[in-house]
Automatic annotation (TrEMBL):
Gene Ontology biological process terms in this record: polyamine transport
Matches recorded under CDD domains: PBP2_PotD_PotF_like_2 (cd13663)
GO MF term list: polyamine binding
Classification via InterPro entries: SBP, Sperm_putr-bd
Name of the protein: Spermidine/putrescine ABC transporter substrate-binding protein
GO CC, alphabetical: periplasmic space
Cellular compartment(s): Periplasm
Keywords for the protein's UniProt record, in alphabetical order: Periplasm, Signal, Transport
Residues that bind spermidine: 92
Amino acid sequence: MNKLIRVFAAVVIASLLLLFAINRLNSAVGFSSDNTLTIYNWGDYIDDDLIDRFEEETGMKVIYETFDSNEAMLTKIQQGGTTYDIAVPSEYMIAKMLEEDLLLPLDHSKLPNLKNIDERFIDLPFDPGNKFSVPYFWGTVGIVFNREMLGDMEITSWNDLWDPAFENEILLIDGAREIIGMGLNSLGYSLNDTNVDHLEKAKAKLDTLTPNIKAIVGDEIKMLIANEEAAIGLVWSGDAADMMWENENLDYVVPSEGSNLWFDNMVIPKTAKNIEGAHQFINFMLDAEVAAQNTEWVSYSTPNKEALQYMPEDMVEDERFYPSPELTEKLEVYENLGKKNLALYNDLFLQFKMHRK
Ligand code: N2P
């Protein structure tokens, strides 16, 4: 009996020692929650070398996950399975997340590099005073097209896409607001229209584009168009810029009927565990040289004014990707249309996708 107790005690002590050792080891390699930073960002939206550099400089361990739409990101954050320290939603989604009380206020004293951001991108209506969000990238929605494949056919408007000559030549990004938005814009309606009749007309008009649509895809759209698998794509500006570095036959246009101007900002979800680390990461990404390196890799347009001096001139001076304030004023920023209307956009988009099958 005595022996049994001794064996039992030895096992307990050994287990405790083991647990202690694992714990020490975990924090040494950075798995304790303080030392881990979990980031949720769009696909292809950061230079991985910068994550390595941040880890080296801070000793933190970054866990990095990606999403391909604002809606998917929101669902994941609402479900709360994984807790994220940083997310990068677009403006209308930030407004929605604020409405649902999902974001933490930022401590500006920990973000001295915020001064590097061009004031054009500061204090916008979806987040007055940038209390909850800090600019990351911005851009437009438009059409990328292959001049070589299209011969002398010009594309300048959304309505050009309905030309029967483009049968099976168009790829679309998988975004409800972008695609329904194209339908709305092509009929002269606003991207923030909530009139059910207008929205149904937009969906019906999109259905008539079906013969020209080759597929609705995610980030692989860049590879497909750069490899000339399709001549035309509805894309976000930076994806077009990226493809154009790969294939010189490509060009990008913001359609004449109007289009979307968007802003993706970094936020800290309320459920974040490493709030200090999140601020460190945001401030790191706001550094001028870091932002320049990231922008060169990602190809989207940077809101970081101080970064521009470190970037190639032909990139900064390209008006297709750095449109003037006069042009951007003509574009529409998505508004948070409320639960019911956003659900309607999503439903119509789903129906449109099913109609294609
Ligand atoms: C990056 C997509 C950027 C998204 N792949 C536009 N909000």
